[in-house]
Amino acid sequence: xxxxxxxxxxxxxxxxxxxxxxxxxxxxxxxxxxxxxxxxxxxxxxxxxxxxxxxxxxxxxxxxxxxxxxxxxxxxxxxxxxxxxxxxxxxxxxxxxxxxxxxxxxxxxxxxxxxxxxxxxxxxxxxxxxxxxxxxxxxxxxxxxxxxxxxxxxxxxxxxxxxxxxxxxxxxxxxxxxxxxxxxxxxxxxxxxxxxxxxxxxxxxxxxxxxxxxxxxxxxxxxxxxxxxxxxxxxxxxxxxxxxxxxxxxxxxxxxxxxxxxxxxxxxxxxxxxxxxxxxxxxxxxxxxxxxxxxxxxxxxxxxxxxxxxxxxxxxxxxxxxxxx
Length: 325
Ligand SMILES: Cc1cc2nc3c(=O)[nH]c(=O)nc-3n(C[C@H](O)[C@H](O)[C@H](O)COP(=O)(O)OP(=O)(O)OC[C@H]3O[C@@H](n4cnc5c(N)ncnc54)[C@H](O)[C@@H]3O)c2cc1C
What we know:
Blueprint (H helix, E strand, L loop, with lengths): L3 E6 L6 H17 L3 E6 L4 H8 L4 E5 L9 H15 L3 E4 L3 H14 L2 E6 L1 E4 L5 E7 L4 E7 L4 E5 L16 E4 L30 E5 L8 H12 L2 E4 L1 H5 L20 E5 L5 H4 L7 E6 L12 E4 L2 H17 L1
Parallel strand pairs: 1-2, 1-4, 2-3, 3-10, 4-9, 5-9, 11-12, 11-13, 13-14, 14-15
Antiparallel strand pairs: 6-7, 7-8
Helix pairs in contact: 3-4, 5-8
Bound molecules: flavin-adenine dinucleotide.
Flavin-adenine dinucleotide binds next to helix 6, helix 7, strand 14 and helix 8.
């Protein structure tokens, strides 16, 4: 089968990551010549159903009260059943924690292949899916060919362009009558949602980030002011998070958030490979660092070699002034 299945969580709505998965799925289905099926799991969201049906060939809505909050075991059961019936060539998921957990488990159940953090999808001559992703902590790129079908891949979704609605097209929408397993071995018992004002880092168009070079938690208040002046969100390197200067959820990088802003302003961050992995999809990187040999300059479109303390107040004042014009 040449069909492609994308797995979306209704709770996320039509957010940037969801749009990236739909875009990746649409283009892959067009390449394989197959149909694009989208399964939406969770409480039905009409906006998402509508937006997806304008881009996919078939929308499958899996809405039962037990699925309104993510439960990996139940989601796995739903996805396994759908895949066994559709026999897709590839199954694509986003990069949230549930997708990352489900990907290898689903591949295992279907006796397919699994790949994490896909950044580009192509099809080899023999028809196998090829996935490009970073390797060695971001120092290299590797292309993997997934021999066994289905290829189940979670994507660096924000790095994939969304798909435009197809002209004069409305995919079918089917409400699934799903049977859930009566007993599951593991259930999420409690959830903690961290309060964060503003846009999630992953969706922010502008991000100002601080690292060890800031020297402590206080300067992050200055970063907040700079960010407020331009409507940006604030991120951080792992060191700044590990030191307890800012919450762990602000961390950008291999073991933190993978973001794709239009502009990433890194202040007092050296540019370790693990940090760069989180900003590989940033459009423009700008840097303020006192060390002209800091590796991050090699990746920057704009760089200022200076002690941040000398430039931050003036920069914030100027940007605030420009914003009010
Ligand atoms: C498995 C693994 C996973 C990791 N995951 C991540 C991750 O997800 N994210 C991440 O960030 N790191 C990660 N790391 C850590 C990473 O290797 C680096 O240690 C970390 O990114 C360095 O943070 P930094 O740039 O803030 O600090 P440093 O490397 O110490 O850099 C500080 C920079 O500040 C500059 N500076 C100092 N004073 C000033 C000043 N007054 N004005 C301007 N500039 C100044 C210095 O010149 C220097 O370039 C990971 C490491 C491992 C092993």
